[in-house]
Each structure stands twice: as structure tokens, then as C-alpha cells.
Design brief:
With 110 residues, the chain is an alpha+beta fold. It is built from four helices and four strands; from the N terminus they run H-H-E-E-H-H-E-E. A four-stranded antiparallel β-sheet has the order 2-1-3-4, with helices on one face. The radius of gyration is 14 Å and the shape is elongated.
């Protein structure tokens, strides 16, 4: 499915950017946790908005999740078939900042 393929590519990019930009303060202090966000993308791949769905309880991780999504932008433009299906794409996303200073990603509930 075209939507699933777009989201999978988006997730790969966000994870790659996230691992290159893991928050140094969290690494130093051993802060871990999960953040749930929703990224809203325009058809041209620009970021319309990021909505915090569930905080990790650690401001450094919450800010890092938003920063990582912003650093990855702009994303790929929607292809013609995807543009026919959606005006904007809402991508729920879960960041897991773990002990080994590694970022894992997935959709909420993963």
C-alpha cells in the first residue's frame, strides 16, 4: 500500500536522524523514556505541525523528539496516488530513548 510505504520510509529517516542526534544530556545522565508524538505533513513534504501526544516526563526527551522530527524535514513529497487520498498526513509516532543511547521508533502501541 502506498500509504504504508510512505510511512515506513518516513520512519526510517526519522530513526536515522534520531540516532545521529541523540540528546547528549540524556546520554550523559542516563535518562531514558518514551515519547508519543504526531507529525502532520503537507503534500510537499513540509512539516505542518508536531503534536505532543504523551510526554516522557523528561523535558530533554520531549524536546529531542520534536527536534529530531524538525531536523528530518522536509520529507518526501506525496506521490500522485497518495495526494488523491490525503490532504495532510498524520503520522503517530513513538520514540523510545534507551539505556545504550539508542533511539528506537515505532507507531504508538508498538
Amino acid at each position: 500500500d502506498i500509504l504504508a510505504a510512505y510511512v515506513a520510509a518516513w520512519l526510517r529517516k526519522v530513526e536515522r536522524v534520531g540516532n545521529m542526534n541523540y540528546p547528549e544530556e540524556a546520554r550523559r545522565k542516563g535518562i531514558t523514556g518514551a515519547v508519543r508524538v504526531e507529525a502532520i505533513l503537507q503534500p510537499d513534504g513540509t512539516l505542518a505541525r508536531i503534536r505532543m501526544v504523551e510526554s516522557s516526563g523528561h523535558p530533554v526527551l520531549d524536546a529531542a523528539a520534536e527536534r529530531i522530527i524538525r531536523l528530518g524535514a522536509p520529507y518526501s513529497e506525496f506521490g500522485p496516488e497518495l495526494r488523491k487520498r490525503v490532504d495532510r498526513l498524520h503520522i503517530p509516532h513513538r520514540f523510545v530513548f534507551s539505556q545504550g543511547a539508542e533511539l528506537r521508533t515505532g507507531r504508538p502501541g508498538d
